[in-house]
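Progress narrative, work stream C.
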Amino acid sequence: MVLSKMKKISGGINAVRGFKSAGINCGIKGNGKKDLLLVLSEKLASAAGVFTTNRVRASSVIETIKRVKNGIAKAIIANSGNANACTGKKGEETTLEIIEFTGKNLKISGENILVASTGIIGRLPEVDKIRKGVMRLMKKIDSGDLSGAADAIMTTDTFSKEIAIEIELKNSNIRIAGIAKGAGMVCPNMATMLAFIVTDATIKKNILQKALKEAVDKSFNMITIDGCMSTNDMVLLLANGMSDSQEIKKGSNELRLFKAGLDFVAGKLAKMIVLDGEGATKLIKISVLGAKTKKSAKNAAMAIANSNLVKTAFFGEILNWGRITAALGASGIEFSPEKIDIYFSGKKIVNKGCGCGFNEKEIKKILKNKEITIEVSLNNGNKEAIVLTSDLSCEYIRINASYN
């Protein structure tokens, strides 16, 4: 029923009424690729955010958290290629300078500007390049050239990630769109990924924040590529109320539809991040069923998804289910090993903790697929969790050995 009220539309963030965005190369990246993004709302928007849980946080994260607490924003300025993390007092001053300069030239308060950065840690950004870039972005948007937004936040990504949808309400419609980046150093609780989502729905900031947190817990916090957590990452959501729909209120059917749409957008962006994992050749869906608690199910799925031995087995397309049981046993959850059942894309390979009769040719054929589902049934309760991950290839090592 919910899906029938929803359809994909083109245009990304710019498809949402009252929002404009664009990206350019301002010189942070020496290869000419886009590295500076501006997202601008015509009106002040309700703002929500979820941020990295890493204790080492970039100043962009710290400043944006402060502003999201106020619940109102009008613009997002973001750069890629330089994380401006672990850069001390000078890095903090640089972040504030970028906010102040952007606000002054957009003629809006710096308190209404959210800032993000991603890239190499430990280097100060060249603020003059960003200043000039902000001016060029404003001219680009004013000229009607609304291109390059999703490209401008990429680092080791191989493709841009964006999606837009329209949701039919009783007498009107609303739109939700988002862009994201992420390819490496991706693990739950926000890690080396940015996502900016916008909507023209009218919705109060407390309801918006709750909806975003729930969406993130189902999507971005249920993916892992390499188990590493970053210093800069955030998901931001702005709602400017520029559709002709009525305010979405707590407990309403409209809120149910909005949350379904938000979950869809976040889920699609999260999947794109895993598909674009550094050096990834496969997307692996780890489903843990029959756990005592939701937390146990998630911890078990994460333990399997983050196991380098499991991930390399999928890259090598070898049938080594013992690595899955070993990762499960090291997860710290309570379960009975003699009750475990394991399936590879619907084919049972473990029955009550032991390998069972299966057709090896069929399993090897499954392992050649680009998307594989692993189902682990603990037979210990009724809670479940699904985590998306990628395999671990030689290319991942090459990329990260040379990223500097």
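Work stream C, second folded protein:
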Amino acid sequence: MLPSRYDGWGAVISEAIMVGTPAVCSDRCGSAGVVRASGRGGVFAANDLDALTALLRRLMDQGSPSPDQRAALARWGRRLGAGAGADYLRAILAFSDRGGDRPAAPWMVGQEAAQCPAPSF
């Protein structure tokens, strides 16, 4: 969980997802888009204790993810690793240099949402 009022990224979010642990962060955290794209965990409005409480209650009511769901999330999380980041940076630099299609962030490619059903809130 990263309940930031401001955080440029929040590496702990990537680290959690990469090992199959659903993450929770505020909407002021740079990695909130990753949490949303993962289909697991959740994002709440910063400074809104009621929203955080409601999100945590929903997640607790859902129970722990199964081993298969954790494995699927960890597989999805590979797109957050160093190799994916390096490839993304190279694509950004090539785009900056030569134009063409703007590169998509690795966590947005395909939008498989961790190949597991998204929680129904």
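The two ends are 18 Å apart (CA to CA). No further action is required on this item.
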